[in-house]
Task: structure prediction
Amino acid sequence: MATIFSKIINKEIPADIVFESETILAFKDINPKAPVHVLIIPKIEIPKVTDLKASEHSLLLGDMIDAANKIANDMGIAEEGFRLVFNCGDNGGQEVYHLHLHLLGGRKMNWPPG
Ligand code: AMP
Result:
């Protein structure tokens, strides 16, 4: 099912886009939880992590990690470190059911997460 992220992919609503490729879009989170908070999403509609299959989506997942590393480098947080998060389902805290990888950095992260 289409979510607000489909509208961002289709440029129907604006977003602060930091990276785009044939398969991936990355944009700044509208409600950032850290000085750097970017969402990395596939352009195809995959609702959540449990819909992924390594046999089918390994290239896409690789593209998402490559994008995260590039953005972390571009934003100057690669050296000091950062966190990558997939929230999955209600207990995971997922609000938007279009797969997205959170890239968080620019401050020390807490562990365990809330
Ligand atoms: P999650 O809770 O893992 O589903 O994360 C969804 C994230 O999407 C939240 O951090 C929201 O702040 C973010 N978000 C929702 N709508 C927008 C939007 N229009 N542009 C950018 N980020 C958004």
Summary: The chain has three helices and five strands. The first helix runs from residue 4 to 9. The chain has one domain: 4-105. The longest strand covers residues 36-42.
